[in-house]
Design goal:
The chain crosses the membrane at residues 56-78. Keywords: Membrane, Transmembrane, Transmembrane helix. The protein is mainly alpha-helical. It has a domain at 56-97. It is 77% helix and 6% strand. It is built from 2 helices and 2 strands, in the order E-E-H-H. It has a two-stranded antiparallel sheet with strand order 1-2. The longest helix is centred in the C-terminal third of the chain and has 40 residues, at 57-96. The chain is rod-shaped and about 115 Å long. The protein starts with 7 loop residues before the first strand and ends with a helix. The model is unreliable at 5-11 (pLDDT under 50).
């Protein structure tokens, strides 16, 4: 193992000397590559999920419209029942009376 200067560090087993600055630059490059590959992987996953969900958006829209119309129909029936029940009682009382 050979040491050359303060800024260099020997790699054990190879007998060659790699300056510390180069090792730090390589580490930064590897970090940048790792981050960029993580970013690229995340973007590709998001694109794939978006592509698959685009086909289900019309189906979800139709389901929301159906659920909304059923809710409005239920409210209509409920309001009709509440508003007409006093009128029915009066009509029944009038018919019986």
């Amino acid at each position: 193992m050979a040491f050359v200067g303060v800024d260099s560090m020997a790699i054990a087993g190879r007998g060659s000397v790699v300056p510390l600055e180069l090792r730090l630059q390589r580490a930064k490059q590897l970090n940048a590559r790792g981050l960029s590959s993580l970013l690229l992987t995340t973007v590709s996953v998001l694109k794939r999920v978006w592509w698959h969900t685009k086909s289900y958006l019309p189906i979800v829209g139709i389901l929301l419209l159906a659920a909304g119309s059923l809710l409005l129909l239920q409210l209509h029936w409920l309001s009709r029942r509440l508003l007409q029940s006093p009128l029915r009682e009066k009509a029944i009382a009038k018919d019986l009376g």
